[in-house]
Amino acid sequence: MQIIENYINGQLVAPRAGNYLDNVEPATGQVYSQIPNSCQQDLEFAVTAAQQAQYSWANTSLEKRAAILCRLADLIDANAEDLARAEAIDNGKPIAFARKVDIYRSSANIRFFAHAGTQFSSESHAMENIAINYTLRDPIGIVGCISPWNFPLYLFTWKIAPALATGNVVIAKPSEVTPMTAYLFSKLCIEAGLPAGVLNILHGSGASIGGPITTHPKIKAISFTGGSATGAHITQATAGMFKKLSLELGGKNPTLVFADCDFEETVKEVVRAAFSNQGQICLCGSRIYIERPIYEQFKQAFVELVEKLKIGDPLDEQTQHGALVSEAHMNKVLSYIELAKQEGGTILTGGKRHQLDGRCANGFFVEPTVIEGLTNQCRTNQEEIFGPVCSIMPFDDEQQALELANGTQYGLASSVWTNDLKRAHRVAKQIEAGIVWINCWLLRDLRTPFGGVKSSGVGREGGLEAMRFFTEPKNVCIKY
Ligand code: TXE
Prior knowledge:
This protein has helices at about 40-60, 60-80, 80-90, 95-120, 150-165, 180-190, 205-215, 230-235, 265-275, 295-305, 325-340, 380, 400-405, 420-430, 465-470; strands at about 1-5, 5-10, 10-15, 20-25, 30-35, 125, 130-140, 140-145, 170-175, 200, 220-225, 245-250, 255, 285-290, 345-350, 370, 390-395, 410, 415, 435-440, 455, 455-460, 470-480. By secondary structure, it is an alpha/beta fold. The protein folds into two domains: about 1-250 and about 455-480, Aldehyde Dehydrogenase, Chain A, domain 1, CATH 3.40.605.10; about 255-445, Aldehyde Dehydrogenase, Chain A, domain 2 (3-Layer(aba) Sandwich), CATH 3.40.309. The strands form six sheets. It has a seven-stranded mixed sheet, with helices on both faces. A six-stranded mixed sheet has the order 10-9-8-11-12-22, with helices on both faces. The chain is globular, with a radius of gyration of 23 Å. About 50% of the residues are buried. The model has no long low-confidence stretch (mean pLDDT about 100). The structure holds ligand TXE.
């Protein structure tokens, strides 16, 4: 049984109070490692280490910081196979997907922000013949990064990389459900020569260590990705403390398919948008609206393709659809399928837990599920299920499509499938979402703003947005 350790002050250490949580492999249902359930004592140790490292890291040259971060990115690449395997075991996602998406993006995140750090500049504002203002952008100091289980190393690095590149010292907490790759990453930090205390990784539950990180008075900014309920909790818990908050929360994203789309390509991509990572992506398109003239034809082709997805052991290279992350999450997803039936939905395909043989006989597998016949207002179409469940519905015109798309509390991402250029622009402008993909899905340029509106969050990540979040602007005004 592998025992995971915290990473504090440049060293791997056991939790001070000696408390551990079980870590389960979703594909087998078996406990396979133990993780520290850190508490306030561990946090104080980490904050002290971070404070000691703060001045020196903030004053390390941009070039040197970038070199260390690039070394870390190279080490991820050099260990990509082990990391992909660890991610597949820990999360239940197919290994081919973990390799191509999770681990590839983890090193890309770090390399991207290493370079961004050397290119980042601040503004100046001249006032005719009166004065000049220039803006200094200093690191905030100690910042907290809290990440979820759906893309464990990918989202972990997406947060810590801009924080470190801009000269902050970091206390990071990966999800307690998927701690393994962050633990392996801490070993790579030691190998890369990241100075002690610059990054500290504390493992444990939200209640035991997540909450204390968010409310610690010395931690001045929190970058969080997770559920909207947790985001609301963090907002309340930190009210009056005047911390900077970046909250990337849930989604219930619309997919709008117009009759003039490229039919085959659209069917293929809409399946990918709904079911990638077993539907456990905040960007997944789970409400699919199809223009009525092609509704029946699209439905048939869509269901046919969904039924071809190969469900299997995440460690099998051929697997396209792995296990859900935990038993509790599987039960939540299955309960939504029952709810959909009560709400009048018809299951077109899927709808059940999937039974595999051998090693995966007790795994948390759920069939990719397509539902029709639901109203837009029902809970199935309003609440984030975060699993392999989507709902399809017809629409009659562009106006109705927009009303349906905008008819939820969420506003993270959306995709629009059409060959009508003017319509694409019109719809993109009117959709209430932080991200609109036209004739594509999850095509990511790391320079673009990433985040949502309404209950999907506050603030943006990515590119300059992240660099600005992790720095404090100070205006200096000089009179001529
Ligand atoms: O998320 P949580 P969970 C959604 C999705 C999913 C639901 C719950 O709908 O079903 O959220 O998933 C830490 N203070 N998303 O339970 O609880 C926690 O330990 C500080 C969408 O995993 O929000 C973990 O590290 N931190 C999402 C992180 O917050 C706390 C991805 C996220 O956990 C905390 C994942 C607290 N009080 C789930 N409580 C997306 N948008 O990508 C928990 N945490």
